[in-house]
Amino acid sequence: MGRDVVVTGLGLVTPLGQTTESTWNGLVDGASGCGPITQFDPDEAGLRTDIAGEVGTDTGVINTDILVDDRTMGRYAQFAVTAAAEALDDAGFDPISPAWNSDRVGTSIGSGLAGLSEVEAAAGDRPSPSFLVTALTNLAAGHVSICIDARGPNRAPGTACSAGTHAIGAATDDIRRGRADVAVAGGTDAAISPLGVGSFEAMRALSSRTDDPEAASRPFDADRDGLVLAEGSGIVVLEARDHARERGATPYAAVSGAGWTGDAHHPTRPTESGDGLRRCVEQALSEANYEPTAVDHVNAHATSTSVGDAREAEALESVFASTSTPPVTSIKGQIGHTLGAAGAIEAAVVAQTISKGIVPPTANYETPDPDCNVPVVTETRKNEIDVVVSTSAGFGGTNGALVLEQP
Predict the structure, then answer these.
(1) What pairs with residue 389 in β-bridges?
(2) Active-site residue set
């Protein structure tokens, strides 16, 4: 199994705010980050959908030595750099300090659509010299590594909406196997553009409840009719437990297991029984050496789509068939679906859940669906949480799961 891995820093850029504190407070208070699209005119673009979960325009950084450069960084990379700055500051690291051992620091940041907006903006024009570095999928990880002088393992999973979860799982493995002592890991996406919104609209994946954006995303609810597209980034600082102990850091949580499976079924639809995700969660629990009975909470992928939520519920019912399914939350009712960033944002939220003993609610869950027979958390709860499973799933039938626990 190798070295134990703990989470020592959190950074979030979401529709609820550009810090972990603002996002967390918004979640537990029941706030919504979904609203009218402001980045472009949906009417001019010929779209019916005019709502999304946008990040505010006041993008900034906490550590002024780590700079966001919009000339060379796409919007998705700017989110990642901003979140990474907060996470490193939260963990007590200073990348310009002589004590910063850059050769032993890795970066692992996934993305689903990455620089789609930058590609769309450049279409038909002569590309600028900086075009590729604003658009390529690996440049969020690349820019972060440059900004913080991280010279260890560097990767960028492009596994759709599982990318952030896969990035954290892979970085955990880097530390366990001794390839790094510290890793800056997570996910980021910024696909709110005419092409991004239009593509999901064409697939009929978006909610039509545009007159009430705060109520549009309804995970597991019987009246759900599609997701709300969103943007943002989640970054966690992972660290070998002995390394964290030596410098006196206090972990939020430990990452004890990860699962990776494929449905091998359909480009967009999960298997009828949710079998791929079931196997993924079981794999993560096996790696963590836990039986399903040990799990106190599930932070679900649940995007508010009819088929996706139902298949995930089936998967969870199957995993926990020998016991009662633990309380389930999906935060997408409040922030929408951030694509490749979703699993990473949710991992950071899970770390807070474990650290604070608070389970955030699932917004807009009002009418139980017989096809989603799981105990959905509808109000903020305070209770001690020891073991949490966080799930992700994406186009192409890619699944990811993490097990996080008390440190």
Answers:
(1) 298, 403
(2) 161, 301, 337
